[in-house]
Amino acid sequence: MIGVVLSGGQSLRMGKDKGLLQNGQQTWAQQAFAKLSSLQIPVAISVNTLQLPIYQTVFPTSSLIADEPVLSIGGPLRGILSVHLIYPKEDLLVLACDMINMEVDLLDFVVQQYEDKPADALVFMKEKQSEPLCGIYSAKALDKVYALYMNQELHKHSMKYALEQLDACYLPVPKKWKAYFDNYNTISDLNNI
Does domain 2-188 have CATH number 3.90.550.10? Predict the structure, then answer.
């Protein structure tokens, strides 16, 4: 299993790269990287090609995976599939860089649940909405999504649509963990930190 920090978004609503925003002494991407690394798994940072030079000043180049140019899709699915193409035999534990309230206890829990209940994907459900940017995607499932894409059968490029094509296991978010799934998309959201 490989951890993946999803930092490749355009951050249009925020107006600046969310992965590089500071929270204390670290950037958001560094915090997500540290949390995933604490599980004793290798961790990669998914970035878009324009971000690569600046992220190379923060992370070792070997940790960075730029979006695959042949994938003509956007959003987090592009980042996840780009990592999958580099590591096709690895399951991916993904975490969006803007989930800055996420804690290691939940990440550890999701890994344990995945070991107990193998599925194509394992994600949380919060108030009837799936949370696809913190979960595990099996190599087999990502092969399936990639094949659908290559055969022009992936009719939408959203994570939620991709999950609908898989045998996904949804875990309810316990009340004590609900704040872990808060994400921050605008400058005004930062006032709530």
Answer: yes
